[in-house]
Write a structure and sequence with these properties.
The chain has seven helices and seven strands, in the order E-H-E-H-E-H-E-H-E-E-H-H-H-E. It has a seven-stranded mixed β-sheet, sandwiched between helices. It has helices spanning 13-27, 51-69, 87-101, 119-135, 170-178, 181-184, 189-210, and strands spanning 3-8, 31-38, 73-79, 105-109, 151-155, 162-165, 226-233. It is of the alpha/beta class. The chain starts with a strand and ends in a 13-residue tail after the last strand.
């Protein structure tokens, strides 16, 4: 893959959902563009922090995390965290980026996860999928010339169909996550780290099983980690109910 756009609702979602894959692709020379939809102004329980101060803090953290992973370009759409924007607003803001970069894949959070309660995740995931569809037709002519985007990948999905070994890039992923100090450098981090490692080890177990390598599991002397994605072709994003089983 030579070009990838990663659309995140908040300034740390890409790292948590796909940091290992992003680091791997960047190392191979892929152009990686981060698009951050909201400013993350309410991502803290510290009453001493104003929302405006947190916006600035999280911007610096996001840029630092991107350097850890080798991100090529960062784009801010500037919507307010948990704001009253709608999906059409995100589509209109995102389309010029998609048509300018013309990526081979767009990646975002899966908005159709059961029990996902955050409206930013719901709206951004759905809007990104819609923007991938609209990118290839004559809708929104002011957003640039149409371009076909072959596929979309959803991270944090309950229905993954693709698993990628990211063991060699796990430390880069963890470094990028911890660059978001306002979010992760706290008493909860050891438990979160344990959860991330457990989940990634389970994904790697599935990868081994699908690859017919499960018999080697008992010989492994070090932890192995994978990330999981729901990958769909653009055609599967419309009038394709069987996509959930793909």
């Amino acid at each position: 893959m030579k070009s990838l756009i990663c659309v995140q609702p908040h300034p740390d979602d890409n790292e948590v959902g796909a940091g290992g894959l992003i680091a791997m692709l960047a190392q191979k020379g892929c152009r990686i563009v981060f698009v951050t939809v909201t400013d993350g102004r309410y991502g803290s329980s510290d009453p001493s922090l104003s929302p405006e101060a947190l916006v600035d803090i999280r911007r610096h953290e996001r840029l630092s995390a991107g350097r850890c992973l080798g991100v090529t370009e960062q784009v801010e759409l500037g919507f307010e965290d948990a704001g009253e924007y709608d999906e059409r607003d995100v589509v209109e803001a995102l389309l010029p980026v998609l048509r300018r970069v013309r990526p081979e894949m767009v990646m975002t959070v899966d908005p159709w996860v059961p029990y996902e309660a955050h409206p930013d995740h719901q709206k951004v995931g759905r809007a990104t999928a819609a923007a991938v569809l609209f990118a290839g037709n004559i809708a929104y002519p002011d957003a640039g010339a149409p371009c076909h985007i072959p596929q979309v990948g959803f991270y944090a999905s309950s229905y993954p169909n693709a698993f990628v070994d990211v063991t060699r890039h796990w430390e880069a992923k963890m470094s990028a996550i911890l660059a978001h100090q306002s979010q992760f450098v706290n008493a909860e981090w050891p438990l979160l780290q344990q959860y991330f490692e457990y989940q990634a080890a389970e994904y790697h177990r599935v990868l081994r099983s699908r690859s017919g390598l499960d018999e080697l599991a008992g010989t492994a002397t070090e932890a192995r980690f994978a990330e999981a994605f729901k990958v769909l072709s653009t055609r599967q994003l419309h009038f394709f109910p069987a996509a959930v089983f793909s």
